[in-house]
């Protein structure tokens, strides 16, 4: 197995997860800024590893496996930190929707690969839009404080709600694409 630049970026993103948790709980005034910056950087590495892999044909099976795992872990940990810091019904609901959809779609993709239909549930434009809205929301929610008169946390809450709705919509689209295979009886 050779380590490509995209795979190294993915591994770096995974290593940032415990650092994010540590930074989030630091008892310093700047900890929220550092946590938001760290998450933003991790989000950019997610974009960069995909771009580099496509641009320079640096695909690997290990990287293809690891990339979505790193993304889902980073998002789930950020959501848990935010819900723990702001335990409201809505925040918990949006987090549960996002994490639940990620688990369901991952299981759906795995099952579709088992039956040779993986291409029916590949990442679509709607899923990419959901990811962008979700990442921006999480950066804002980790930052928490108003910036230049903008209520960053409130905007982040609304964006997270939008990301949760996009999550449901894209999850439904994946399910709809897979439905013909799902409704068949096993022989």
Describe this structure in words.
The chain crosses the membrane at residues 6-26, 33-53, 73-100, 149-169. It is found in: Membrane. GO terms for molecular function: CDP-diacylglycerol-glycerol-3-phosphate 3-phosphatidyltransferase activity; small molecule binding. One of its GO terms (biological process) is regulation of developmental process. Pfam families: CDP-OH_P_transf (PF01066). The structure is a single chain. The chain has six helices and no strands. The longest helix has 31 residues, at 152-182. It has helices at 5-24, 31-55, 61-85, 89-114, 125-143, 152-182. The chain has one domain: CDP-alcohol phosphotransferase transmembrane (TM) domain (Four Helix Bundle (Hemerythrin (Met), subunit A), Up-down Bundle). The protein is globular. The protein is 78% helix and 0% strand. It is mainly α and 187 residues long. The model has no long low-confidence stretch (mean pLDDT 90).
């Amino acid at each position: 197995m050779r380590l490509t630049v995209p795979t190294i970026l993915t591994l770096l993103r995974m290593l940032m997860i415990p650092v994010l948790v540590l930074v989030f709980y630091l008892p310093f005034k700047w900890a929220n800024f550092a946590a938001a910056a760290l998450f933003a950087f991790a989000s950019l590495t997610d974009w960069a590893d995909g771009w580099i892999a496509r641009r320079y044909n640096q695909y690997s099976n290990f990287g293809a496996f690891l990339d979505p795992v790193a993304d889902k872990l980073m998002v789930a940990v950020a959501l848990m930190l935010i819900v723990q810091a702001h335990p409201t019904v809505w925040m918990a609901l949006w987090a549960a929707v996002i994490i639940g959809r990620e688990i369901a779609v991952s299981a759906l993709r795995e099952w579709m690969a088992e039956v040779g239909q993986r291409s029916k549930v590949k990442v679509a434009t709607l899923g990419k839009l959901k990811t962008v809205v979700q990442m921006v929301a999480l950066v804002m929610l980790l930052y928490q404080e108003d910036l230049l008169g903008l209520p960053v946390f409130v905007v982040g809450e609304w964006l997270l709600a939008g990301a949760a709705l996009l999550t449901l919509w894209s999850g439904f689209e994946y399910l709809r694409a897979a439905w013909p295979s799902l409704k068949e009886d096993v022989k």
